[in-house]
Known about the structure:
This protein is 39% helix and 13% strand. It is an alpha/beta fold. The protein has a domain at 6-256 and 439-487: Amidase signature (AS) enzymes. It has an 11-stranded mixed sheet, with helices on both faces.
Amino acid sequence: MIDLTIKQALAKLKSREISATELTRAYLDRIEKYGKELNCYITITPERALSDAAASDERYANGTALPLDGMPIAMKDLFATHGIRTTAASKMLENFVPEYESTVSQKFIDAGTVLLGKANLDEFAMGTFSKTSYFGAPVNPWQKEKRLTAGGSSGGSTSSVAAGLAIAATGTDTGGSIRFPSAMTGLVGIKPTYGLCSRWGCVAFASSLDTPGPIARTVEDTALMLSAMAGHDDKDSTSSPNAHFTSDGNLQPVLGDGKKLRIGIIKEFNNVEISEDMKTLFNKRIADLKSMGAEIVEVSIPNILDALAAYYIIAPAEASSNLARYDGMRYGLRVEGEDLIDTYKKTRAAGFGEEVQRRMIIGTAVLSSESYEVYYMQAARVRRMIADSFNSAFEQCDLIVCPSSAGTAMPLDSDLTPLEYYALDLFTVAMNLAGIPASSVPCGLAQNGLPLGMQVVGRRFDDMRVLQLAKHIETAASIDNRPTKIMGC
């Protein structure tokens, strides 16, 4: 049962071949068997899951089934869930239990999903391998004996879906945190247009960049998940009034039968070092698109190689501001000191991990009066230039494609410096700075048997067409990402 896609599972539930309770028990059994080894969940909620499943079965019985009724999902532990521990993978919030529900998690409740638990992640979503989690790093189920990264920060979400410990999951993408881990685990993930999905109730990292989005095994399942998540939210001032996305999972082709599409290749990425496997598979998928009738054009994003530097100024600056609220006074960890200031210092020193502390220090420094104009405002100008360059590029093409990463998943014990970890975001951060939609879709398997992904990038609110082209790439690549195939059981 755990090899079923969302579309297949919904069909079987509607025809009463299986029940939501049976489906949920299959996933809970899988979590019990592999959850500890993969470390993809921080909190597992079996009682809630079975209660949700029973309610779904009742709705199927009386003909009032909801769009995603009975689908067992993992919720990234960055979304507040009423009455269920929400940690952001940090010691600071280790025992925090919200009294409210995030908009995204409420939307999934309203769609009838079953909550299996809260997925592991990098602490406060700051990282690339999910190694900064206070609860330990999740493991990639592909060749799991090698203990490879499932990516970050949504590594718990991707590990759970790839291993069959959830049928789909939520993630957040601030600089590539949905797309990079999806590429590492052979899944589909989309960073929607900024403002399409509400951030209300989602623990903040960098408010102008954080973007909730879905992760699933297929493009069609991803579209179904995004349809449940998207929509304007009056509680979120950054939620767009144009936030509309509706899909029944049946994506219309944008190529073939005489349909023409101009697809852009970013010139500035041509000289960026990537693996030979990535080059080969990327070129194969481009050839496939050309054979379907696409016109391939080269486009220029002149400042895209500066995006990494701009991101690692803007994101830490916003993190410094957002994480100032964790002071031990109202909620979360509290370490008593000799006085108020000493309590602040001891609480924050004990509650935050090394990477979070590093980014807060960087952020505070660039916001200082001596550095604000030199660093922060310069980064803001580069951000504007990148957004303008994407707008200009889309005058020459309909969609853009590029790699999701330079290569396949690396071992969790890789000895990289912080700057080397940051450099892994090179292909993804520019889309967050511009606020445009980008989806990672599997483009094939490398010679070592591990998956690689490529991105489809579109104009703001062109999320549907992004997924439609991703569907073509998925079909051409045709990798087998069934959990039983990946895990060998």
